[in-house]
Amino acid sequence: MIEIPSDLHKDVVPLAFLLGTWEGAGVFAPLDDTRPGYDKCNFGQEVVFRHDGRAFLEYRSRTWVLDEAGNKVRPLENESGFWRITSNAGGAAGVRGIEVAMVRDEGVIEIWYGELADGKPQIELATDAVARSRTAAPYSGGKRLYGLVGGELMWVGEKAAPEIPLRPYMSAQLKKVLNPAKLLEDIADLPDDGIAFFR
Q1: Contact at 8 Å (CB) between 127 and 111?
Q2: Are 175 and 24 in contact (CB under 8 A)?
Q3: What is the 3-state secondary structure (H, E, C) of 16-50?
Q4: If you compute the radius of gyration of the chain from its CA atoms, what whole number of angstroms results?
Q5: Per-residue pLDDT tens for 151-199?
Q6: Alpha-carbon distance 169 to 160, whole Å?
Q7: What is the pTM of this model?
């Protein structure tokens, strides 16, 4: 069940399924295997979507390399940005446009546009503009697909560089982190011994 906070701006209600903190793991496959420290690996991820009542969601993602035992080895990539609903994508009935402004720690700023699928929690995005700092790795654009599947947030990213065609580079499966305060609120009506719950 998707909860819609009472103070969520009406324009971003269709994105309510993203709200919260998500954690999980995925697979990273770099475009350029000549960059030191950027080998194919498993990674851990924390994603946070939150709102402050205005017409956008704030987004933050942190990833880190995992060893074979699942322990954190070192940071991998971080990014943050803002997600908005735009008018109907291309004027199509029932299709909502999505606009994302994002900055990544490797020196990349991106503008993404895409669509929220009609009737299901799925978003498809593609870069519209990319700006790189002088120290950033070659990169010319990307695509991403996000979806809520069985209560888990799944996503896959594709990336391209001037000499490399668009190809998958990251994907992850994330579970929502429960807020302990909300859990306490939900059990407030339980009897002290808990036995009545099973009667």
Answers
A1: yes
A2: yes
A3: HHHCEEEEEEEEECCCCCCCCCCCCEEEEEEEEEE
A4: 19
A5: 999 999 999 999 899 999 999 999 999 876 655 565 555 555 555 544 5
A6: 9
A7: 0.85
For residue 89, give every residue at least 6 positions away whose Cβ sits within 8 Å of its Cβ, in sequence order, or none. Answer: 95, 96, 97, 98, 114, 115
Q: What is the pLDDT of residues 91-138, one digit of tens each?
A: 555 568 999 999 999 999 999 999 999 989 999 999 999 999 999 999
What are the distances in angstroms from CA 137 to CA 13, 28, 106, 134, 168?
36, 16, 8, 8, 17
Structure tokens at 158: 């594709």
The label of the residue with tokens 């009472």 reads 6
Query: Positive or negative CA dihedral for 94, 55, 158, 147?
Result: negative
CA pair distance 51, 15, nearest whole angstrom: 11
Residue 72, token pair as written in the block: 């954190």
